[in-house]
Amino acid sequence: MRPVAQPLGALTERYRSSTRRVDFNGDGREDLLVRSCIYEYPYCDQTAWRQLLGQPGGTLALSYDLDMAFGAELPQPGDFNGDHLTDLVFHCLSVLQWCVAISSGEGGYSMNYGPSGNGYLWYLYLVGDYDGDGFDDLYAMRNSPANWEVIRGSGTGLTGSAVTTGLSTAGGGWTVTDYNGDLQQ
After folding, report:
1. Hey, what long-range contacts does 44-47 have (CB within 8 A, 24 or more apart)?
2. In the Cβ-directed half-sphere of 3, how many Cα atoms lie within 13 Å?
3. What is the tens place of the pLDDT at every residue in 74-88?
4. What are the residues whose beta carbons fall under 8 Å from the beta carbon of 74, sequence distance 6 or more?
5. 180: Cβ–Cβ under 8 A, 6 or more apart, which residues?
6. pLDDT under 50 in the chain at which residues?
7. Other CB atoms within 10 Å distance of the CB of residue 12
8. Please, are residues 137 and 128 in contact by the beta-carbon 8 Å criterion?
9. Using alpha carbons only, what angle is made at residue 110 by residues 106 and 115, rounded to the nearest 5 degrees?
10. Order of strands, edge to edge, in the sheet holding 87-92?
């Protein structure tokens, strides 16, 4: 049983699938996204998500800190602009919007602010290509009514409105798949 703090599983579980191999800069080496302490003295009072880029010989190099994600957010990998680099989507708690960090190909990213995150559970969302257009989309759980909604990827981030799926969020244990082989999730 998974702890309540990680209802979708640990980050290591979410980033290990072959379809979600993390590569921020397109060099073919697997990169990592880790949460670490920014200010350690006298105690860790702020954490951030940091990109670590895979290097020759299997080492890692610190690249960038993910602005607007200070530790409580749970970034999900995806490709929201179709360039085959790993982008990240998360609920920006500080501005109450969905944010997409679009990878630049050099290990950095540009931030795209999507629609309001009000009315959604900030910790329960999934990524997949809902409409088969080659851009990943965000599946987000609406508080009331408790349904999944899809905010489509636009090629530059997320569109401004959500599509109601009619699927209840009851039961938990959700994942995004292509259940009928039509290349749509």
Report:
1. 46/70, 46/71, 47/71
2. 4
3. 889 999 999 999 999
4. 8, 11, 90, 91, 123
5. none
6. 1-19
7. 8
8. yes
9. 150
10. 76-78, 87-92, 97-103, 109-116
